[in-house]
Design a protein that fits this description.
Oligomer: single chain
CATH architecture: 3-Layer(aba) Sandwich
InterPro entries: Acid_phosphat_B-like, HAD-like_sf, HAD_sf
Strand content: 15-25%
Number of helices: 6
Pfam families: Acid_phosphat_B (PF03767)
Structural class: alpha/beta
Radius of gyration: 16 Å
Keywords: Hydrolase, Signal
CATH class: Alpha Beta
Helix content: 25-40%
Distance between the termini: 14 Å
Protein name: Hydrolase
GO molecular function: hydrolase activity
Largest sheet: 6 strands, parallel
């Protein structure tokens, strides 16, 4: 990547090292049901700059807004939730050095979160970041304008779980609070697999080049 790309791979994990850390009602009523999925075609990261990444993210989330509008119509009295990953989904982690805070919001994701909240949808964030930086993470999210109904980060014993299993478990936990997760947004498959969401929206990670 060019320009902003110099910050790639110095996201949450680098912040952890720097800090010296040692440390839904589902479709058809089954957590294993495969949700509808929207994705953008994969592109080699070497060919993608910051502006192209933003364009690719927008291409996916432009489909999410009308979906949320349709899904929330006549949904009075229902507890609905939107779930977002954080790094390179909600925040531009790999495009900005970790020490330059707050990390800016991914604009299309912020637009979606605010729109969903305006439609009565609670907005939750599930991140593989360790719990020791949960307060800083919540501050970053709120300071750039996100509504935060809940934030899940990894503490023991979750710290050593597979990311996909950990995130699936947290979505199930949100469901246990009486919510239906209408959409789950992330840029890695581990953010999205495992069910417990009516629909998933896959943002680009360019074959794993983005965290």
């Amino acid at each position: 990547m060019t320009g902003h790309g110099v910050g790639r791979r110095i996201g949450a994990l680098s912040a952890v090292v720097a800090l010296g850390i040692g440390g839904t009602v589902t479709v058809a009523g089954t957590a294993a049901a495969a949700p509808a999925r929207t994705a953008v075609a994969a592109t080699r990261v070497a060919d993608v700059d910051y502006a192209t990444w933003q364009q690719d993210v927008r291409a996916v989330l432009d489909q999410a807004v009308p979906y949320v509008q349709q899904r929330t119509a006549n949904a009075s009295g229902q507890k609905l939730a939107l779930v977002l990953d954080i790094d390179n989904t909600a925040l531009e982690t790999d495009f900005h050095p970790w020490y330059q805070l707050p990390t800016p919001a991914v604009a299309p994701s912020l637009d979606l979160a605010r729109y969903a909240r305006s439609r009565g949808v609670d907005v939750f964030f599930i991140s593989a970041r360790p719990g020791i930086i949960a307060a800083e993470t919540k501050w970053n999210l709120t300071s750039v304008g996100y509504p935060v109904s809940g934030l899940y980060t990894r503490d023991l014993p979750d710290l050593f779980d597979e990311v996909s299993a950990y995130k699936t478990g947290k979505r199930a936990q949100i469901e246990s609070l009486g919510y239906t997760i209408i959409a789950n947004v992330g840029n890695n498959d581990s953010d999205l697999v495992g069910g417990h969401a009516e629909r998933t929206f896959k943002l680009p990670d360019y074959d794993g080049q983005l965290s």
